[in-house]
Amino acid sequence: MKPLFLDLETNGTDKNRHDLWHLAAIIPGPFNPTNADAEISLKSRPYNVPASDPVALDIGGITQTELKALPDPHTTISEFTGLLCKCLEDPDDRFTLIGYNILGFDKDFLFNWFKRNGYFFGSYFSYYVIDVYAFIQALHQTGVFPGLPKLKLEVVCEYLGIPIQAHNPISDIRATRVLYQRYVEPYFACYTNNSLEAPTEQKDAAS
Fold it and tell me: CA torsion sign, 98 to 77 to 119 to 16?
């Protein structure tokens, strides 16, 4: 699996009317030719700036005038895919997207952004994603985080003492990566050699 941590800021919540304007991603060092973490922060002018949701712009701290001045989306996606191609050495390689609520939001916006710009999403990404939010939600349901009032990323991070500047995509994705490393990665580490068989201690507990 080639992981790519992703967070987006958009000019609204309707994937068919709105668009991303700030994309942040982290490609971990082992999957980057430089062997160092690659942090990507790119901005892109939405296709339909007048349709922007004022609430979304207020949350993102940007105006319609500022959106119109952002780089052309064709330029931004060309730069983004160029960075991806440097890490996809094999023709069959694909990135697995990891994010917070990525399944219900970011993946759809990224997919539509690729489609609008004439790029095929499946040439770069697997259609399977890892949603850190789903893991946090499951842990919360089992009582792991007593007293946690909401499951918004910034609330979870504040509860767990993880630094975050909410709705700053780079800060958001760094915090999401910390959550992944603490609560998701250890779960996957339990299963080795591509086997679905649970470790001995888990089997003993289940019997």
Answer: positive
The mean pLDDT value for 103-111 works out to: 96
172: which 2 tokens?
């958001």
Is the pLDDT score of 72 beyond 80?
A: yes
CATH T-level fold of 2-131: Nucleotidyltransferase; domain 5 (3.30.420)
The Cβ-side half-sphere exposure at 68, using a 13 Å CA radius, reads 6
The pTM score is 0.90
| Cβ-count burial 60-92 (b if 16+ within 10 Å, e if not) | bebeeeebeebeebeebbeebbeebeebbeeee
